[in-house]
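ARCHIVE RECORD
Type: protein–small molecule complex
Small molecule: D-gluconic acid
Source of inputs: curated submission
Record status: active
Notes field left blank by submitter.
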Amino acid sequence: MKIIDARVIVTCPGRNFVTLKVETQEGVTGVGDATLNGRELAVASYLTDHVVPALIGRDAARIEDTWQYLYRGAYWRRGPVTMSAIAAVDTALWDIKGKVAGLPVYQLLGGRSRDGVTVYGHANAESVEQVCAEVARYVEMGYRAVRVQTGIPGLAATYGVGKDKLFYEPADAAIPTEAQWSTDRYLHHIPGVFARVRDEFGPNLKLLHDVHHRLTPIEAARLGQLLEPYALTWMEDPVPAELQEGFRLIRQHTTTPIAVGEVFNTVWDCQQLIREQLIDYVRATVVHAGGITHLRRIFDLAALHHVRSGSHGATDLSPVCMAAALHLDVSIPNFGLQEYMRHTEATDAVFPHTYRFADGYLHPSEEPGLGVDIDEELAAGYPYRPASLPVNRLEDGTLHHW
Ligand code: GCO
Ligand code: MG
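STRUCTURE (tokenized, with ligand):
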């Protein structure tokens, strides 16, 4: 099963996506997502200039060996660019293996551990009234879990509150736009939002909130305490996670569960968080954490320490990543939740897929492989557009975490 071709496709059907398509001598193809929001062309170059030439002629069946070859072989280990590139190759090879076996990838991972993958949607709006209306829309669509973000009185723009309700997209300009942040205003406002939402929607709807790495551990501990009466499923990314031991402080003070991991690339980013049981959900993804092969290792370590999965699934992860995520989600023993932000119609058309949403669950494809593809002709009609994620400043002008 020799690899005879591998090509990198960059397309922008509403936002930028990088996709790797691998082809074998027998004509079997596989796809992998390599999108890294705001740094798309760095991964495209890593693949085109350094990985693709070494892939040609290799045996497509050797997934583990290829993973090790790319990880150890580069000498420079880890990092988002490297790991997204490795992820794309790994995902494409799992797709090929499934097609050759005539089985959906989840069957190769041990088969189903559950009937469906519980997903959460994003309710975001400027005011508490508006956000309640957004939550209600998700409940009507059948969602069992909703992430809630609102504007903060006194701040011009707030993370998570976008113009478009179903496809929130923060990468809005070639040069980063500047947003404003105030921890005091935020901590004062957010508990009241959840008091209202919990009161209106009752105890059975799972509620989540994304802090987007903006607090210090002691501030996060306080927020966790303030939110305890509203029984959140998780408080996400309370602090930047480079300092894994920083989570000890949060943990000592609150029973609000903690989720973290959308920027993690390898198990080394979270091994202390997991081993010391400092978190409850690990949110690493197929595309940014080295593909199905490596993400499964992270989830296996997590399973030993009562930590569940909660993979990132924002609009900047393509339907190829979502398709792959669902095969893992449905098969692992310690699945928690899957984020599901819908893609635009143009994106869905460029990436035809057969996973489907019903009653608050996503269901992976039953087709051999991942059950997703890229329509290269359509993709060619959407050329790359430079777009960066914003930056954040405190009211006195200090650059803060976005
Ligand atoms: C989430 C995220 C996203 C990210 C975005 C960055 O939880 O969905 O925080 O909104 O900001 O994916 O590329
Ligand atoms: Mg997040």
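CURATOR ANNOTATION: DSSP finds 13 helices and 16 strands in the chain.
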